[in-house]
Amino acid sequence: MHLMEYKYKDMIHRCFRCGYCKFPTDWSDVTNCPPYARFRLESYSAGGRLWLIRAWLNGEIEWSGHLAEIVYSCVSCKNCVEKCPHSFADDVVNMIIAAKTAMVNQGLLPKSVTEFLTNVQLHGNPYGISAKKRGDWMEGLDLEPYQGQDYLFYVGCEGSFDSRAQSAARATARLLQQAGISFGVLGDKEISDGNEVEMMGEDALLEDLAQRNIQMFFDLGVQNIITLSPHSYNVFKNRYPDFGGHFKVFHHSQILADLVKQGKLTIPETPDTRITFHDPCFLGRWNQEYNAPRKVLKAVPGATLVEMERNKKGALCCGGGSGNFYTDFLGGSEDSPARIRAREADAAKATILAVACPNCLTMLEDAVKVEGLEEKIKVRDISEILCG
Amino acid sequence: MSSIYQALVKIVGADYASDRKEELFTYSKDLGTSEPLWPEYVVAPKTTEELQEIVRLANEKKVAIVPLGGGMTLAGLALPQQGGITIDLKRMDRIIEVNEQSRYMVVEAGISHGKITSYLHKHHPNLMHSEPGAPPAATVGGNLAIHGQGDLAHPYGFNSDMVNGLEVVLPTGEIARFGSCAVGSGWFTMHPLPDIGLFLGWNGTTGIITKVSMKLYPNKKIRENNLFVVEKEEFVPDVLFEISHLGMAEDLIATSSEIPPMMNRLHYVSIMISGDSEEEMEFKRHLTFDVQLSKYIRSGVGGIASVSQERSRPQVSKSSDWKKGGGFEYVGAIVPVTSYPECYRRGAEISGRHDIPYTVLGRVIGSCHSMMFSWSYAFNRADDLTVKHARDALHETDELVMEINGTIWKPAIFGQKLMMDRMDPGALRLMKEVKKLLDPNGIMNPGNWEVI
Amino acid sequence: MYELKFDPDLCLACDSNACLVKCQHMDIDQETARTEILKLCDGESSFVLQDCVTCYACEEYCPNGNHPFYLIVQKQEEFNLLPLPDPLVKSGIQVGIPFRGEPEIQEITGTALNMGVFSQLASRVEGRLFENLTIMSGDSRKMFHYFCQLMYLHYGKTSVINERLDKIIQTIAAHKVKEVVHFHDECFGTYTSYAPAFGIEVPFKSIHLFEYLYNKLLELRDDIKPLGYKVAYQRPCSSRLSPDKHPFVAKIFDLIGVEAADREYVDENAMCCGATILGQKKEGSRKYCAEIQKKNIDDMKKAGAQICVFNCPACMQTLGMPVSKQGIMPLFLSDLCRLAIGENAA
To answer: Which residues on chain B are in Cβ contact (under 8 Å) with C290?
Structure first.
């Protein structure tokens, strides 16, 4: 690849590898960069990755499958952006995404990444499941297709296809019904939102998905969108306007917080529970929403909300971002971020590990099981907690 | 696949050993101006036992090993001069014990200073340790291997003076402990056992530090930075002397730099004070400015630039991006405080010759017993010419340190040779014999402190 | 070089000598005051030059529209009786040297908002109150090209101001702007008080931030929800150069439904934040600075202030933290206005 093609060619050398990016906000350890926490080799730190990318661009090293895995192990959690003290901090993740784009353009990808992107392109979801099955999650819920209601409830790929995340999608839909919200869903018309494909460097596919979604939303007269996933929330809110799609976008935690405040939900009592909340990166560090889910959880009668040591801006990612929930470059170890996070929830003596993201839900539920903590800790989406 | 790689995988697991070019590339580079030097293997042990096995393997195979902490020396001290195995020690990062009443903590040496600061802040807020001027990713072991100093240098000296006990893996793989821990009495002192000062400041050439007992110090509730400024560099030693007379400052640093202009050809003395109440703080401010330094203020040759600037720990530095180029390196020297004026003047000249805005800093160690004086040279990593200028400036500065009878702190190989060329022959011979005794196969970070 | 337009005859005929009599920092009876000001008028030195803390207040106290403060500062320089130690003067003078390239000059249609050397406070000028203004000096790397230089009055250095101000005015004028709202009222004072006093031409109209805010709030009156706080105002030294704009503080308070804390150090008797006094050469300056800061904050507390609003970022930097430690929330007045119209403060 010629250096000139790389958008950040005049910036990438500025990383000093000082290592601030490894820390959370409270400096409690060097393990807040998920890939670095997992492998603990400098090549997997944000700085190491930037130096490797630069070396690849300069021809100092050649592309390899291992290089691609290192680059794709970045989950775009933005911890590095949060902690980097330099003026280019905002672009640290962007520089890594740009390297992924360069790899996409040259077809130099790990197999699992190719699979992910191909599946999204062919089937509209990363799992490669037939689009016809996209509406299966709402079976028995009596939901209306979107036809001009106040809100579109956009479920996303995980909520539509992953059996665990489907439960959160159903819980959210039930709560919206209970509160009398006027909403509809897309069912099998829904396609991927494109957030992950952008994080994986496939910007052409993002553009295609965004244009298709925007056209569909326009055709249906959508103005307000509620998303199950913070990933969908992020791309609809921050990227779709670049393609002409201007919608009012809400994450389900924001809507639920409002409904709780208005007293429109009957929340079952959960005595003697200690709930801790795991901040999803695309709600927290990407969109600075830390309060809405906590407002929801504080309203649960009988429950105590406790914080894990790393929280809010300093939260450790579950390790599922940028497609890693599928590609799984960070799995297979007790140092996998989700397992570290499960142990942190246990250290906080939580009985419920609450999430507000279907990716986090599946990642952390698996981790709790592997850690042998499933008798002690239940992983629940905030909507599931409100449903009891 | 080599047998060494297979053996390393067997010791630490496949995730933490690598002979792939991506890791080798990453560990071939230092953050400073050093040319890349490639290891053949990279390994990250989790336990002392794993480390022992690695060292035994290397000793048996006569393969070089380079212990690496945070990798922050900038001087290439953890780059493999002769290939071999780079051992990244940062997974060995447990906090083993904090004894609050006796004011010490025992840690694994790969722990970061940031983690210690954060841990004490949360769990022992009345205690602190001396945090180096490096980024918080710097490790305790790495800092001791280079005789680092930190933000308690003025009252308590070098960080290596704050050690209460050590555990070391020797070049042959055995473990040795020093201090009261060696006689099973806990980790509360290095004394009064016979002095075996063989590991601090040796750049990992005599053994790998695995556990450290560090002295902790009172952490006051309020901490602030006060700045005093003079124009004439000749005043700086006396200003520092006057303040050190009080014994009240936590950290005492004089600095001057061409950029920003407000610092150009002026000398700012940063006086860190702390207290448990506003009354204590005001008492210290009063004695500092209204008594000790009042002669400067009255005569108009010194002034209070600012007071009561809150300062958080760890400190965050942006100095590496001064040239928007991701790099700087400095020569640090241990010199008498009285050398400040000459160090500043000569340093500014060197910077001028290499088209680098000058940046100098002197941190007082002890009650003006010495000073760590640094000359920083920023460069643009993407511009080879600026890297060369910085490298040349560093070498000239090393020579300057020798000329003014200073000692180079954490010298690069070039500076080590300059120092050893002038070293007392008796000391040099002893260093050589000690090294040969401890490391008969010469596997420990070879090239460093190598007496020919 | 520019010369101060100062009329000694006005002082000769003055029967109050309020400039020095009212000084909060020097205890001077009227007879001495008259003697000393006339000495200065005659080109002689005076103890006033050494004792002046450079709080600007005499500019406001003067009943004749003369410029006693500018005169004092000019004489401090003439007699080499600068209030600050030499290294602080050198440092201060060097602060204003631009060192990160030339600014990009773009033509501005409509009214500009000049951030001066406070580009980094751009988040303070967001929201509906500022939506029609075009920001000038929004890039902190280039902000010293917009530095009004008036700070050097504290350094006894009118020569530096007079040497540099033309270039700053040219830079602002290069934007082809007709009207400029100044974020910092020291800039406003520069272009509406200092420049005319020294005969320096200013080819644009200056609008005081508080006057602008008041008029903007009138437009948004329907959206104002009275805040109901008790508020202290830290009046800055530069406000003494535009006393006719000071009443906008009270008018804004009325409009946004806050109560002005009933305190001693208010209006003409406002107390300096102390930033400039801290480092002065005069014996005991540091302690005096600490004392007046304590008095000032104690006065706010005694009056029951919940919020202390600031006009000047330097005052905010100096007093913001000490005020908040006493349980009083420090805010820029513009932020308080934003709260009143339902926006979040920066």
So the answer is: 282
Confidence (pLDDT) at A2: 54
* A27·B23 Cβ contact <8 A: no
Q: What is the Cα–Cα distance from B109 to B138, expressed in whole angstroms?
A: 11
Three-class SS of A295-329: HHHHCCCCEEEECCCCCHHHCCCCCCCCCHHHHCC
Record: contact A43-B314, CB cut-off 8 A:
no
A369 touching chain B per CB within 8 A: no
pLDDT at B321 over 90: no
Interchain contact B309–C (C-beta under 8 A): no
Q: What does the alpha-carbon distance between residue C237 and residue C129 come to, in Å, rounded to a whole number? A: 25
Q: Which domains does chain A have, with CATH numbers?
A: 3-109 (no CATH), 129-257 (3.40.50), 266-387 (3.40.50.10700)
| ipTM of the complex as predicted | 0.96
pLDDT in tens, C183-205: 999 999 999 999 999 999 999 99
Q: What is the mean pLDDT of chain B?
A: 96
Give me the long-range contacts of C161-166 (CB less than 8 A, separation at least 24).
Answer: C161/C194, C162/C1, C162/C2, C162/C198, C162/C200, C163/C1, C164/C96, C165/C190, C165/C195, C165/C200, C166/C200
Report yes or no on C290 lying in a domain: yes
CATH 1.20.210.10 fits B95-218, yes or no: no
Residues with Cβ within 8 Å of B297's Cβ and at least 6 positions away in sequence, in order, are B289, B303, B304, C85, C279, C281, C285
Domain B319-411 adopts which CATH fold?
Alpha-Beta Plaits (3.30.70)
Q: Tell me if chain A has a CB within 8 Å of the CB of B142.
A: no
Decide if A29 and B118 are in contact by the 8 Å CB cutoff. Answer: yes
Chain A contact present for B123, CB below 8 A: no
Per the domain annotation, does C2 fall within a domain?
no
Summarised one tens digit per residue, pLDDT across range C77-98 is: 999 999 999 999 999 999 999 9
Question: Average pLDDT of B80-90?
Answer: 98
Chains that touch C (3 or more CB pairs under 8 A): B
For chain B positions 218-237, those within 8 Å of chain C (CB to CB) are 229-231
* Rg (chain C; Cα; Å): 20
Q: Would the CB atoms of B302 and C278 count as touching at under 8 Å?
A: no
Mean pLDDT for chain C overall: 96
Domain boundary among C211, C235, C253: C211
Q: What is the pLDDT of residue B4?
A: 97
- Whether the upstream peptide bond of residue B260 has omega within 30° of 0, thus cis, is yes
Give phi and psi for C111, each to the nearest 5.
-90, 140
Residues B27, B68 contacting (CB under 8 angstroms): yes
Which pLDDT value is given to residue B1?
A: 64
pLDDT for A316 equals 98
CATH topology (fold) of B3-88? 3.30.43
What is the third-level CATH fold of B222-310? Alpha-Beta Plaits (3.30.70)
- With respect to residue C86, please indicate whether it lies within any of the assigned structural domains: no
Domain boundaries, chain B: 3-88, 95-218, 222-310, 319-411
Range of the domain at C18: 8-78
Q: Are residues C123 and C190 in the same domain?
A: yes
**Nearest CA-CA partner of B208 in B112, B111, B66, B97:** B66
Q: Which of B12, B19, B22, B122 to substitute to test the interface with A, most A CBs within 10 Å?
A: B22
Percent of chain B exceeding pLDDT 90 equals: 94
Question: Which residue shows structure tokens 């090393």?
Answer: B398
The alpha carbon of C46 is separated from its chain's Cα centroid by a whole number of angstroms, namely: 25
What are the per-10-residue average pLDDT scores of chain A (388 residues)?
A: 74 95 97 98 98 96 97 98 95 97 95 98 96 94 96 98 97 97 97 98 97 98 98 98 98 98 94 96 98 97 97 98 98 97 98 98 98 97 95
Q: Count up the domains in chain C and report the number.
A: 3
Q: Are residues C171 and C118 in the same domain?
A: yes
Asked if the structure places residue C90 within a domain, the reply is: no
